[in-house]
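Pilot study result, target chain (105 residues):
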Amino acid sequence: MVIRYLYVYILECSDDLYYTGITNDLEQRIIEHNTGIDKDAFTYSRRPVNLKFHERFSDFNLAIEWETCIKKWSRKKKEALINSDWLSLKEGSRCNNNSSHINFK
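Predicted structure:
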Protein backbone atom coordinates (compact mmCIF):
# COMPACT_ATOMS: atom_id res chain seq x y z
CA MET A 1 0.00 0.00 0.00
CA VAL A 2 1.36 3.39 -1.02
CA ILE A 3 0.66 6.24 1.37
CA ARG A 4 0.12 9.54 -0.39
CA TYR A 5 0.64 12.91 1.19
CA LEU A 6 -0.25 16.50 0.55
CA TYR A 7 1.93 19.37 1.72
CA VAL A 8 0.64 22.77 2.72
CA TYR A 9 3.39 25.33 2.36
CA ILE A 10 4.20 29.01 2.70
CA LEU A 11 6.73 30.70 0.42
CA GLU A 12 8.33 34.07 0.93
CA CYS A 13 8.58 35.88 -2.39
CA SER A 14 11.35 38.27 -3.45
CA ASP A 15 9.02 41.23 -2.73
CA ASP A 16 8.49 39.93 0.85
CA LEU A 17 4.91 38.80 0.18
CA TYR A 18 3.82 35.34 1.30
CA TYR A 19 2.28 32.72 -0.94
CA THR A 20 0.40 29.74 0.51
CA GLY A 21 -0.09 26.62 -1.57
CA ILE A 22 -0.69 22.89 -1.57
CA THR A 23 1.04 20.09 -3.46
CA ASN A 24 1.76 16.38 -3.44
CA ASP A 25 5.46 16.93 -4.35
CA LEU A 26 6.95 19.77 -2.34
CA GLU A 27 10.45 19.70 -3.78
CA GLN A 28 9.20 19.70 -7.39
CA ARG A 29 6.66 22.43 -6.66
CA ILE A 30 9.33 24.78 -5.27
CA ILE A 31 11.39 24.19 -8.42
CA GLU A 32 8.33 25.01 -10.54
CA HIS A 33 7.72 28.24 -8.61
CA ASN A 34 11.34 29.33 -9.06
CA THR A 35 11.48 28.28 -12.73
CA GLY A 36 8.37 30.30 -13.51
CA ILE A 37 6.46 27.82 -15.64
CA ASP A 38 3.19 29.82 -15.51
CA LYS A 39 3.35 33.53 -16.42
CA ASP A 40 -0.05 34.09 -14.77
CA ALA A 41 1.01 32.58 -11.43
CA PHE A 42 1.22 34.82 -8.35
CA THR A 43 4.88 33.93 -7.83
CA TYR A 44 6.02 34.36 -11.46
CA SER A 45 7.08 38.00 -11.11
CA ARG A 46 8.09 37.54 -7.48
CA ARG A 47 10.92 35.04 -7.96
CA PRO A 48 12.99 33.73 -6.39
CA VAL A 49 10.84 32.28 -3.66
CA ASN A 50 11.99 30.64 -0.42
CA LEU A 51 10.18 27.93 1.51
CA LYS A 52 9.36 29.24 4.98
CA PHE A 53 6.91 26.62 6.28
CA HIS A 54 5.45 23.28 5.31
CA GLU A 55 3.32 20.62 6.89
CA ARG A 56 2.56 17.11 5.61
CA PHE A 57 -0.93 15.60 5.63
CA SER A 58 -2.23 12.15 4.88
CA ASP A 59 -5.82 13.40 5.13
CA PHE A 60 -6.38 15.34 1.89
CA ASN A 61 -9.53 17.09 3.14
CA LEU A 62 -7.71 18.36 6.21
CA ALA A 63 -4.81 19.62 4.06
CA ILE A 64 -7.16 21.56 1.79
CA GLU A 65 -8.99 22.97 4.81
CA TRP A 66 -5.68 24.06 6.41
CA GLU A 67 -4.44 25.73 3.21
CA THR A 68 -7.74 27.61 2.84
CA CYS A 69 -7.53 28.75 6.46
CA ILE A 70 -3.92 30.00 6.22
CA LYS A 71 -4.65 31.92 3.01
CA LYS A 72 -7.12 34.07 4.96
CA TRP A 73 -4.63 34.92 7.71
CA SER A 74 -2.82 38.19 8.18
CA ARG A 75 0.90 38.47 7.53
CA LYS A 76 1.53 38.70 11.26
CA LYS A 77 -0.33 35.47 11.92
CA LYS A 78 1.48 33.65 9.09
CA GLU A 79 4.81 34.81 10.52
CA ALA A 80 3.81 33.47 13.93
CA LEU A 81 3.14 30.07 12.33
CA ILE A 82 6.43 30.20 10.39
CA ASN A 83 8.31 31.00 13.61
CA SER A 84 6.39 28.49 15.75
CA ASP A 85 5.39 31.42 17.95
CA TRP A 86 2.26 29.86 19.41
CA LEU A 87 1.51 32.73 21.79
CA SER A 88 1.53 35.29 18.94
CA LEU A 89 -0.50 32.91 16.80
CA LYS A 90 -3.11 32.73 19.53
CA GLU A 91 -3.08 36.53 19.92
CA GLY A 92 -3.45 36.92 16.16
CA SER A 93 -6.64 34.90 16.36
CA ARG A 94 -8.33 37.30 18.73
CA CYS A 95 -11.05 39.53 17.36
CA ASN A 96 -10.07 43.14 18.02
CA ASN A 97 -12.64 45.10 16.03
CA ASN A 98 -15.07 47.52 17.66
CA SER A 99 -17.98 45.10 17.53
CA SER A 100 -16.05 42.35 19.29
CA HIS A 101 -17.64 40.81 22.37
CA ILE A 102 -14.53 41.71 24.37
CA ASN A 103 -15.56 45.37 24.17
CA PHE A 104 -18.89 44.70 25.90
CA LYS A 105 -17.91 43.41 29.32
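One observation from the pilot: Helices lie at 26-35, 60-71, 75-82, 86-92. A full batch analysis is planned for the follow-on phase.
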